[in-house]
Amino acid sequence: MMRRILIILVVAAGFSCAGQNGDIDTIQQLPPIGRLTPNLTNPGNYANQTVPAYITKVDNSNPVTDAGAFLGRILFYDRLLSANNSTSCSSCHHQNLAFSDAPRASRGANGPTSRHSMRLVNVRFANDTRFFWDKRAASLEEQTTMPIRDHAEMGFSGANGDPDISVLLDRMRATPYYANLFRDAFGTSEITEQRLQLALGQFIRSIQSFDSRFDQGRAQVTDDFSDFPNFSTQENLGKSLFMQQPFGLGPSGRTGGGLGCNQCHVAPEFDISSVGNNGAIGAIGGGNDFNATRSPTLRDLVNANGNANGPMMHDGSHATLDAMVDHYNAIPAAFNPQLDFRLQLSGFPQRLNMTADEKAALIAFLKTLTGNAIYTDTRWSNPFGPPPGR
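The structure assignment produced for this chain is given below.
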């Protein structure tokens, strides 16, 4: 009986089992249609979340609404958005990893991604409004449907035998729960790519992390540079090293002062507006990738246990904070015509000459940037229940 019910639900929602070989275990991996969380009429507070007064970089070009972000949440987790019903945005951006992924390359509908899945943390609290590692999307909204239109990622490319995105829009129009969700978000039930972009953009913009130990300390002082009363001596040292400029830079590297991290990853948002790349120039498939010039915020690099939220850098080449700090301590001297000017002096790559104590202090500080709610808040969680019998 359970299998018959499941098959009826899949067919009623417009899913095709072609290419799935009719295998019931494969069908059970599809979204369990109709098993949404019960708060469809009360999705929670997305629009009026508390943002600390010291956070000043806010992109409100697509204002977050409760209904718009809730629709975006459904879209973000719905495998319907991939041509073969296998993949959702959440397949590569997992809540328990601060919306990143564990492998270096994520698995898309038709193959691996060419770069690591970037963490989606505080994306609207930043100066740089371009997206993807190479900044090829002019806005977050433009970015949201580019993976859907990509052959490897979600398969609605309109090339290589793929359907185009109009097929997805028709599929959504035949899916009962979307009509009301679009009506609630936009006033009518019309489903367009632009509305997909707006809703997904609002959901991703709503994902924020401002409950870290850094935020608890920052609320007790008047600026980012003062010692925080809730920090240990080591953590305050790490913060000072992060914030202060180095001196004595030259071919032999730093001789004293801070580490200058704040000139790129500016507190308290810890976002970055890059000009060039950061010296990590490898490509996941081999060769060089000089065009990775964007970076997510440094918030939630690791989880509350200190474990990395997936590997770091566009190529996933650094699996730990130790490895990442070592990279910036001595930027590789390999040929790199697009190294960011802030990581070099007179053509020489950065050499910070950190001591063991400085490195440990910096890592201790970076761990204070980790929040809590981002990993568990149901507003950002999977609205589809587990498949039957799982």
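Interim note for the steering committee: Residues 193-206 form the longest helix (14 residues). The radius of gyration is 22 Å.
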